[in-house]
């Protein structure tokens, strides 16, 4: 069960990384602002930051649980 959760969290983190728009790329930034896919750029970045931190913490806890032998 933990391996499945770890897989989905890994997949979620990959998707979050791809959703983040680079500040230097005007092409991707204009697409994100025109499509309104994630809402306003400020709130979208804040939401992605919070989601990223939560997903990383869950991933670390699952990884530690899977790799630490039963004590």
Topology:
Elements (H helix, E strand, L loop, with lengths): L1 H18 L6 H10 L5 H27 L4
Helix pairs in contact: 1-3
Give an overview of the whole structure.
There is one protein chain. The protein has 71 residues and is mainly alpha-helical. It has one domain. It is built from three helices and no strands. It has helices at 2-19, 26-35, 41-67. α1 (2-19) runs antiparallel to α3. The longest helix has 27 residues, at 41-67. The protein is elongated, with a radius of gyration of 16 Å. The model has no long low-confidence stretch (mean pLDDT 75).
Number of domains: 1
Radius of gyration over C-alpha positions, nearest whole angstrom? 16 Å
Q: Quote the beta fraction.
A: under 5%
- Residue runs with pLDDT of under 50 for 5 or more positions: none
Number of helices: 3
* Helicity, as a percent range: over 70%
Q: Averaged pLDDT, please?
A: 75
Largest sheet, in brief, is: none
**Distance between the terminal alpha carbons, to the nearest Å?**
19 Å
């Amino acid at each position: 069960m933990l391996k499945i959760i770890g897989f989905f969290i890994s997949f979620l983190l990959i998707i979050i990384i791809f959703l983040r728009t680079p500040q230097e790329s005007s092409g991707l930034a204009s697409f994100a602002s025109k499509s309104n896919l994630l809402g306003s750029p400020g709130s979208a970045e804040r939401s992605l930051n919070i989601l990223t931190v939560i997903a990383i913490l869950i991933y670390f806890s699952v990884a530690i649980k899977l790799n630490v032998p039963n004590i």
